[in-house]
Amino acid sequence: MDLTIDYMQQAIVAARGVEGKTMPNPPVGAAIVGSGKIVGLGATQIPGQDHAEIVALKQAGKASLGAEMYVTLEPCGSYGRTPPCVDAIISAGISRLHVAVVDPNPNENGKGINKLKEAGIEVLMWQTQEFVLEAKSLMESYAKHIVTGDPFITLKYAMSVDGKIATSTGKSKWISGEQSRKAVHRMRYVSGAVIVGIETVLADNPELTARTENEENLDMQPLRVVIDTNGRIPIDAKLVNDGGSTLIACAEMDPAKQKTLESKGIIIEKLPEDDNGINLMSLIGILRDKGIVSILIEGGSRIAGSMIDLRVVDKFVVFIAPIVIGGSNSLGPISGSGIDNVSDALKFKSSQFKKYGDDIAIIGYP
Distance of CA 5 to CAs 16, 33, 152, 318, Å? Predict the structure, then answer.
C-alpha cells in the first residue's frame, strides 16, 4: 500500500471524527509525517479553538521540522477567531504540504497555499479522487454556506423497491434496515436542523434525535423543526416533552396552546402561507438567520415535493430496501407539483451508491 495514501486517509478519519462539532467551521483533519511515521494528528476543535493543523503541530512538537503535512482542506491564511494556520506551519519548519481541497471561502481560496509557496514550502494537491471526493463531502455544508450564506439542504427518505414509503394505512416501521437507520442517526448528528411535516408527527410521533445503537441520545442534537400550518401538534408529542430543541413553523395556532408549548421551551415561528402551506423559503430564511449551516429533510412527501419544486435541495440520500409493498393507495416519497415532461426532470450532476446491510443508498447531487 502507498503510505502517502494512508497518511491522507488518517487525516480524513480525524476530520470525520469531529464532523458536526465544528459548525460553522468545516471539520478538517491534519497528519504530520516525519521519518516515515505519523508524529502529529489533529482535527478541528470547536469554533474559537485550535484548527486541525495547530493540534497536529502541537502534538508533533520539534518533530515538525522538515516533516510533511497532509491536510484535508487548505490551511487558512488570514485572521479569524484564531491566527492564520499558515504562519504556524511556516514557523514549525514543515517542508512539504499535501492538500486535498482548496478552501472555497472567497477570503481564502488559494491565498494560504500561495503564502506557503512564497515561504519555500512545496505544496502538492492531492490526486487520488476517492479521498478528494470524501474530503469535499466533509465540507459540503460549509462550502455552500461560506459562499452564499444559505444552509445546505439534504433530502432523505427510505422506500421499497416499488417506490413506497408507507403502506396504504400509513405504516412505515421499518422499511429500511438497521444499518440504514444507524446512518440516519449519523446524518441527524451532523445536521443543524431536521425538518418534518405535521403529518409525520401525527402518524409516527417521532423523537427525531440522534441516538446510539442502545437508543441513548448522542452528545449533540439538531434543532427539530415541524412544519405545522394550522398548529395541530399534540401537546403530548415526544418532541415537545423530551427537553430537546424544537421549533414549530405555523401560520396560526390557538393562543392557549401556543402559551403551553412556549412554557415547555418550544419555539413558535409564525410564518406566511402560500398555496402549499407554510412559505418554505421564509422558513429556510429563519433557519439561516439562526446560524443553521445544514438542514436534513426527513418527511413527508408533501414537504419533499415542495422543496424539490423550489429547487432548493442540494443532496438526495435515498435508501432502497429489498421489499415490495404494493397497493395503489400506498404512499410514495415525493408529491408536490411535479413536471409535465421528463426532459424537465431534476437531474443529478453526480451520484454514488452505498450498501447498508441489505439496503442500497443512492446519494445524488442535482
Answer: 16, 12, 29, 30
Nearest to 222 by CA among 238, 250, 200, 245: 245
The Cα–Cα gap between 290 and 318 comes to 28
Question: Does pTM surpass 0.85?
Answer: yes
The cell for 353 is: 451508491
CA dihedral 199, 205, 210, 212 (to 10 degrees): -140
pLDDT tens, 221-266? 999 999 999 999 999 999 999 889 999 999 999 999 999 999 999 9
For the record, the C-alpha cell of 100 comes out as: 486535498
DSSP code string of 60-72: HGGGGTT-EEEEE
CB 152 within 8 A of CB 287: no
The per-residue pLDDT for 339 is: 83
Long-range contacts of 244-248 (CB under 8 A, 24+ apart): 244/207, 244/209, 245/221, 247/193, 247/223
Q: Tell me, yes or no, if 53 is annotated catalytic.
A: yes
* The residue type at 309: D
Quick one: three-class SS letters along 120-171? CCEEEECCCHHHHHHHHHHCHHHHHHHHHCCCEEEEEEEEECCCCCECCCCC
Backbone phi, psi, residue 200, to 5°? -65, -40
User: Is the separation of the CB atoms in 282 and 271 below 8 Å?
Assistant: yes
Q: Which CATH architecture has domain 150-365?
A: 3-Layer(aba) Sandwich (3.40)
Measured between alpha carbons, how far is 4 from 36 in angstroms, rounded to an integer? 10
pLDDT per residue over 269-293, tens digit each?
A: 999 998 888 999 999 999 999 999 9
CA atoms of 77 and 80, how far apart (whole Å):
9
Q: Are 193 and 289 in contact (CB under 8 A)?
A: no
* Selected catalytic residue, list 19, 53, 68, 298: 53
Q: Which three cell numbers stand for residue 128?
A: 487520488
Pairing of strands 193-197, 294-299: parallel
Which top CATH class is 7-137? alpha beta
Distance separating alpha carbons of residues 338 and 318, to the nearest angstrom: 18
- Strand partners for 227: 197, 249
In the chain, where the domains are located: 7-137, 150-365
